[in-house]
Each structure stands twice: as C-alpha cells, then as structure tokens.
Amino acid sequence: MQQRRADNIAEELEELIFNGTYSDGDRLDEVRLADQFGVSRTPLREAFQRLALSGLVELIPRRGAFVRQPGPVELMEMFEVMAELEAVCGRLAAMRISDKALDDLRDANAKCQAAVDAQDTDAYYVENERFHRIIYRQSGNSFLEQEAAKLHKRLKPFRRQQLRFRGRMAQSMAEHEAVVDALTRGAGDAASAALRAHVAVQGEKFHNLMASLKSAAE
Amino acid sequence: MQQRRADNIAEELEELIFNGTYSDGDRLDEVRLADQFGVSRTPLREAFQRLALSGLVELIPRRGAFVRQPGPVELMEMFEVMAELEAVCGRLAAMRISDKALDDLRDANAKCQAAVDAQDTDAYYVENERFHRIIYRQSGNSFLEQEAAKLHKRLKPFRRQQLRFRGRMAQSMAEHEAVVDALTRGAGDAASAALRAHVAVQGEKFHNLMASLKSAAE
DNA sequence: AGTCAAGTTTTTGTATACAAGAATATCAAT
DNA sequence: ATTGATATTCTTGTATACAAAAACTTGACT
C-alpha cells in the first residue's frame, strides 16, 4: 500500500471521470482534490500530466485541468477505430490462435450464454471482456494487444450502456459465435468482418448510443 | 517563451530519446537533467509522467525513470500496427477523400519524385510525411488521424534509417503512385492493400531494419 | 578473498513556500 | 446603469525543504 500515490491518484481520477462524477468542461481544482485525496498538489499535478496524454483531461496553461468527455462525433470515431482494431486482431488471430485459446473463447461464450439466460448484464460484461481480450492476445502482437485494450477500456462506460438495451445481449452473443466459427476455420477475412460488424456502431446501435448519451447528460 | 516549461521539457526529452542520446535502459537522472535544463526537479517529474504513458520511459517506483527503446520484436509489432492503421485510413479515405486532397497527394508525390531525382533523402522525408498525413486526415476520422500520427511520429527515427538504403526511395515512390491511383478510383480495398504493403516491414525491408538496429546500438 | 551487517550517502516522493499570471471585486467616471 | 481602471484574491507553475526508501561503503567476521 501507498507505494506510489501519484499513480493511484491518476487511476482514481480516471475512475471518477469515467463513472460520470465529472462532466465535460469541469475544472479539476488542484487544492480541492488535494484535500479530498489527503495529499499535496504535487502528486496531483503529476497525475494530471498522465491523464492529459490519454485525452481524458485537457491541460490549459495557467488555467488548469479540464475534463474532456468525448462528444457524439468523437465517440463515433473512437468506435470506428475500435471496430477496425478488433478487425485487425481477428484477422491476425485467425492465423496465429492456439487451440487452447479457442477453447477459452468457447468457454467465455458459454458463460456469456449463461448470463444471457439469467439476464445478468454484469456477468455478461465480464465474460464479454474476457472474450475480446483473448482475441487481442491471440493477434500475436503485444503492441496491438495493448493499444486495443487501451481503447477498449476507454470505451467501457459507453459499451456498458449499450448492453442494457433489450435484445442486445442475445444479438452480441450470436455475433460472438460467428467470430469463433471464423477463427476455428482459420478464416481471417471472415473473422475480421465479423468482429468489425460486432463492434461497429451502426443502425439501431447508433440511435441507442445517442439516446444513452442524452440520458447521461441529464 | 517560457509559457509552460514542463511541456517543453517533455518534448525536448522526447527528442533526446528519439535522436539516440539515450539508449535503452538508461536512467534519467532527475537532478542532473534539472541542472541541464536549468529548472528544478518538479517540472521534470511532470514531464516524466507524460513520457511514461507514451511508452518512451518506464517509471519504476522508488527507482527512477528509465529509457525504454523498442527492441526488434516490439518494433516489428509497431510497424505491423502502423501498416494496419494506414490500411484503415486508406480504405476510409477512398470513400471520403476530397478532390482538393487528391491534388495535394499528387503534389506531394511530384515533390517526392523531385527528391528521388536529386537523391535528397531529407526532402523526400518531408514530402513523404505530408503524403501520409493527408491520407490520415482524409480518413475523415480525426481520432484515427491522431492515433496514426502518434505512431507515425514514434516510428520516425526508424523509418528515416530505412530511406537511406539504396533504391528504397524509388520503390517507396512507386508505391505512393499505386496508393494515389487506388484513391482516385475510389477503390478502398486496393488503397488499403497498397498502403499496408507500403508500410509493412517484410522481405528485404526486414533485414534492412535489423541491420540499422544493430548499427544504432554501436 | 568472500560475505554479511551496520552505517552513510543518494535519490525518490511529497509537502510547503513563493512568485507570477488570471480572475474577480471595487469604485470612479461617464 | 454601464464601462473601464485599479486593487485584491485565487490559482497555477516552479523552487526548495524534508522524510523515507534504495544504493553504496565500510569493516568485521568466516
């Protein structure tokens, strides 16, 4: 414990921003937060620097640190990139995936199915995350794996919203099956297409996303 | 001037790491660097935090900041991701590119050709960069554009090395033409494939990259 | 010589102090 | 009342001070 407070503070702040405690444009008051965390301004400022590079916070010289939540356009862009990254992971994984990993994917999927049956979105979310991380890993490119995981994490709060819409879990489930099929056959293009379609925000999903954005703003 | 030293320090340090002043594993001495930059440790430590997230520096608690240069494996991985990102940019740009941007691409290419004729690697490098940035931009996805530019920048020193190999400039040139052709026709898949092949490190290029890595270590 | 332990020196991490810029309040003049 | 100038307060950015951990030194002991 307490081995590196500045690090933890960055994570805690990230969490606070993710879970909606701060909204777009809010200024992060150094002294108030320092008080709140029970530390001085120094470690807080170090944390700000980290958050700035990942885009969660904008540092305006001599003005302060401001929360930067993605708007609808930026969010669509991020989902588009996520879809493409997953597509690449899938294509590479189709060539490189291990039998063990295929089993793990099937296992994750089985647990997803159980969550669908139980209407348990939280459980679904956990297994869904495992499913995707396995694919990132099996791309055989750890840099790609990290980048994909980073963006995945950033989109987490918005993806979670999505799952709450009726029927989304079951549909998502079916898409997972298609991905596993393609990967089992070693069909790179099919796996790629299935993952892109799975992640991309289009049609119905677009309206759902916009709707959840509005409700979050209230 | 002097509006925000911590920021500038991060950039200067980045430059020092890129241009090979520091090699993998070197410790960045806070007091020595503070002296060197004529500032105190505080802004330096803030800069370290930034560099840490972009992967240039590893912060080990209670030990210090260590330079993290990518090894051969990580480098290959990064080039693989770069190739895929460019491929995505190309596919999207084929649908979204403006006539003006197409003209700009042809202009950049003409200047590249002039640089090839003059055997001017520096000039080639500048125009090559412009060429690629136009494509990032024309993906119509500014988040993607930023991510691509970020990785592009990170790989800069290694790409630059590559251009010095005999015939590489001319070959690169020819590949650019193929990209412009595909984009002009609005052929997404062709543009995507051409860009992937252009950026990917394979065959000859692999050996060249490894060779330049060795010479850099000497 | 080699190893280990205690003491010393460095170095990191955090708090505090201080200087300078930005925001805000005060107040006179139109 | 509104505007503009000046003074005051807040806030940021940086330096310095200090505590605690790590690295290094020294010297006793096997």
What does this structure look like?
The structure is a homodimer of 218-residue chains. The first copy, chain A, has helices at 5-18, 30-37, 41-53, 72-96, 99-117, 121-138, 142-163, 168-185, 188-199, 204-217, and strands at residues 27-28, 57-60, 64-67. Chain A has 218 residues and is mostly helical. Chain A has 2 domains: 5-67, Orthogonal Bundle (Arc Repressor Mutant, subunit A), CATH 1.10.10.10; 72-217, Up-down Bundle (Four Helix Bundle (Hemerythrin (Met), subunit A)), CATH 1.20.120.530. In chain A, strands 1-3-2 form a 3-stranded antiparallel β-sheet. In chain A, β2 and β3 form a beta hairpin. In chain A, α4 packs parallel to α8 (168-185). Chain A binds a DNA duplex (30 and 30 nucleotides) through α3.
